[in-house]
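so the lab meeting is tmrw and i was supposed to have these ready like two days ago... anyway. pasting both below. for each one the top line is the aa sequence and the line under it is the structure tokens. i havent really looked at them closely yet so no promises
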Amino acid sequence: MIGKLIRKTWFWLLLLGALLGVAALGVTVTVLHKTSSTEFCVSCHSMQTPLAEYQGSIHFQNPKGIRAECADCHIPGDPTSYLWTKVRAVKDIYHEAIGTLDTPEKYEAHKLRMAQSVWDELKANDSATCRSCHSYAAMDILAQRPNARAEHPVAIKEGQTCIDCHRGVAHIMPDMSGLAAAGASELAQAAAQTPTNVTTRYAIATTPLFLDAAAKTDEGTLMPSTRVDVLANENGRAKVQIEGWQQDGVSEVFYAAPGKRILSVLVGDTAKKALVTGQSETDSATNLTWHQVKLTAWVDQTQLIGDQGKLWQYASTLMSNNCTGCHGLTALDHFNANQWIGVIKGMESRTSLTPEQARMLTQYVQKHASDMSAAH
């Protein structure tokens, strides 16, 4: 009798536990679902600015009538990542409570950090949420617009992920000048650490040229990324030899290659007399004559770096941070060296690039253009 009573008790306890478990699971699923809705996401005061940005984007309204909700972009679909994202979201409640983003000024001050965090996450997970709707395998590339038709095969070949090119598709891009300044600072530190016995170096910025080690008046300007051969070091300056090409009749400037408007040096009147002219050749496309020239000058050692890779990494970051807010990243060989000049000038005003950064970016895209060799 007692044993039968015990068995019944256990049965009802197990049944009650199962029912409570199902109820708890149902409540949990409901809470997770409700807190993943766009309505919940934008219910906080601090989300009104990103809401307005989202409502003005193609992810909110488009010709196909397909809307990507907040969760579609910000919460990965696999169970582990989904739950981890929900756990991490607790911090948002804390920041809402203490007013971290409760004014437009505060929001703008934190916007770059928040955007970078999302970009880093998407980079790390291969743009998992983007790929829940978009995939290379499902794309009819031939039916896409000309730019996309040109860029997507490059992205596939180079193993790029969506966020490499498509930033700012749902929210207005933050001011990227802080990242650029940090990158320039890192580049300057790397240049300062370049051993003095490294003879092949590259200018990290627009830099004055002097005709002797102690001169106080510059006689020309070395353009960013220009290669120099270091001949000697003295008093914090490097004696360098710079090679390039001058168009016949144009003595104020010389370029990285004949027929290519890739600025290397702006030459002052006194420096013109120090130029050594070598061979000449005629550009078959324009019938213009070009002369090979050399200039020996002095430049601040701290403005030269031996690692060209770091220089191009900085320039590449400038491009990805400033040229993906309105369109995908354009392949470097999409234009020739001279065409890139107009492209950058036309887009510069729409970015946060400084004139110095624009010069570096122009050098980068020109020296990787369709008609340039890897030697530059």
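ok protien two:
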Amino acid sequence: MTNMTALWRRVVILLVVVIAILQVIHMTLLSRLEARKNSNLRNGEKSDWQSQQEYQEAQLKKDMTRMLETIKQSSVLDSSGEYRIINFVMRAENLGVKNNIRQDLSLVTQSTIKHLVHLESILSRWHGPVSVAIFSLTQDIPLAIDAILNLRRCIPAARSNTSFHLVYPLNSPYNKAPSPQPLVLDPCETVKDRISSFKISDNYAHGVPYPNNLLRNVGRRNALTDFIFVIDIDMVPSDNLYSDFIDFAITNKLFVESRKDDKTVYVVPAFEVKESVDVPLDKTGLLQLLELMEARPFYFEMCWKCQKHTDYETWQKEPPSPKLSVLFEVLWRDPWEPFYIGRNVAPF
């Protein structure tokens, strides 16, 4: 028994010595690694974090150069000859380089430079392609570039899914080609505030109207999908509308060749909520707000005749369902300005 105790004591002592030696080796290796890292930094090499920052800034500068070249070389006149159009001033990464029409659904919207701050709310809900047409006076194009680059930097979906297009007037008081500006990389938390603070020229003060129809059409033409959903930049879609419609389209074979000329559109009821109220994610949350009188049908006061044919009352009575479906069918009536999902071959 005594011999066994002595043997175990020796084993324990040996293990302690081995562990101590391993710790010394470990600390030595760490010290050498740290010394090498510091030496590399002194010699001009960057840490992983710094390299990522450098890469990001380098890519942004590359994108800015490409945008300026596109503006300089690829603009076209609209049919009136009063506006220049730059299609795909910045292209969604997921879109690829070819303008092939895909069996998909794009959200189409238009915006001034300052109103681009609303894009984050759209992209938080919409997980498919987005086509944004931006209006700018010539002298404000550098600010448009700044806004696009920083939105792409801070919002992954603005980089992967969103294509930006630019429209500017020929009769702007300043018509020189935009020159490169210093790239400002503010913290992402402050980017929207910074865009909102841009000193944008007043187009109406220069006798330049906001080309609403042209912007919509530019956004539509560059939405390279079978279906489109056109909304205002300050509107927010339901959380799963994109995926629900794709499932609906596949189930009902809307993408098959024989239905390419189908003129059916799918009206999406639109509502207004009070500014102090969060926009609900789905129909269940919306119905609760309607009951509390914190939401109402879109344009209820401004132009009810433009929306009443949507038949909001029937829609509200239908309980929420897990899948998208057609509630009822109706022929178009005048006046009616609904928001709808339709084929991109419909007349502009």
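from a quick look at the 2nd one: DSSP finds ten helices and ten strands in the chain. Residues 57-231 form one domain. will dig more after coffe
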